[in-house]
Amino acid sequence: MQETFSGSFTQQEPIPEAAIAAAEAVLRSGRLHRYNLTPGDPGETGLLEQEFADLVGARYCLAVASGGYALQAGLRAMGVGPGDRVLTNAFTLAPVPGAIAAVGATPVYVGSDEELRIDLDDLVAKAPLASVLMLSHMRGHLCDMDRLMEIAQEHGLRVIEDCAHTMGASWSGTPSGRFGAVGCYSTQTYKHINSGEGGFLVTDDADLAARAILVSGSYMLYGRHVAAPDEEVFARHKMTMPNISARMDHLRAAILRPQLALLARNVREWNARYRALEAVLTGSNGIRLIQRPAKEGMAASSFQFRLPDFRADQIAGFVAGCAARGVELKWFGAKDPVAFTATYRHWQYAPEQALPETDRILSSLIDMRLPLTFSIADVETIGRIIRDEAGRAATSVAAE
Ligand SMILES: *Cc1c(COP(=O)(O)O)cnc(C)c1O
After folding, report:
1. What pLDDT is recorded for position 333?
2. How far apart are CA 250 and CA 45, in angstroms?
3. pTM for the full model?
């Protein structure tokens, strides 16, 4: 009998009981809007912002309606607008170029290296084209952040970090999101803490913080923020920033606060699953694993590998073989994008750009989630099925 797997790759853990109780208290209060506060009460959203700022060691934090909106707010705070070009990863998720398009700017794609990080040589080559880099730590793979920040400094690039997949991760001990001028995170269901939708922007720059808060829809109520700059900073910007509403409400904040306390534990749990799966796949026929650098403190909520020697039809057969045994894999090389696997070639609102090296890398890239509802034994089962199906697909080469 062939081994199969019956777990769900999209099943999250339940929301903690403490978060459910906090959400109930907000519902009973009737005060869901972040600025609807009783005197002296900072509110769930204000407290969440302060707690997240403390967690990553940032001066200022703004909670908003989505991670994609946080990216957009970062660009608006920096004054990026129509006609500007913004460098970003060719390998990222659609909300990243979407945030650039939302402010009327144009994405210029920087290629991916073999380990799925931004290609730093391509970044050097393209740095003169823009003054902002929206760096996406796609699928949690951190590039050499010391080198990246050197390049940014040399070329006068301001950096916005997209940490949708790296909340809880670090480079040389510094939290992801704390290298650039702005760090953005998502609290959407598939990310590292779960409020359905939501996001954060962090920065140490008082002017960027004030501008982002005003843009997010603070009216003249910005004084109710906790992790925010002083009135005099807002006074410089309050008449010039449009209100582009996308605040976070107290209900989502209430759900998130107890989850922050679990983040470090959950990161350890994801990493244990990642390493268990990696151990099963090490040395498997045709599978090229991603090398993780020693300086990276990973938060591996997903797993990637490549099948560089397989033809497209072999990869398609491999993916179908795994699916038939209950292992749901995403292939970035499929002709038409499905679910979350769109790549830069599919974002046709931006000018066409050719990145043949990145195409080659993505054409053999396989991606999967590692939800915490999977046990170590579950990921080992998944690993054996993948190994088995890769072996089968590899022998189909020899038979040809
Ligand atoms: C999910 C995601 C975002 C945006 O998050 P939303 O909260 O869904 O808007 C940004 N970048 C990457 C790489 C993501 O995966």
Report:
1. 83
2. 5
3. 0.96
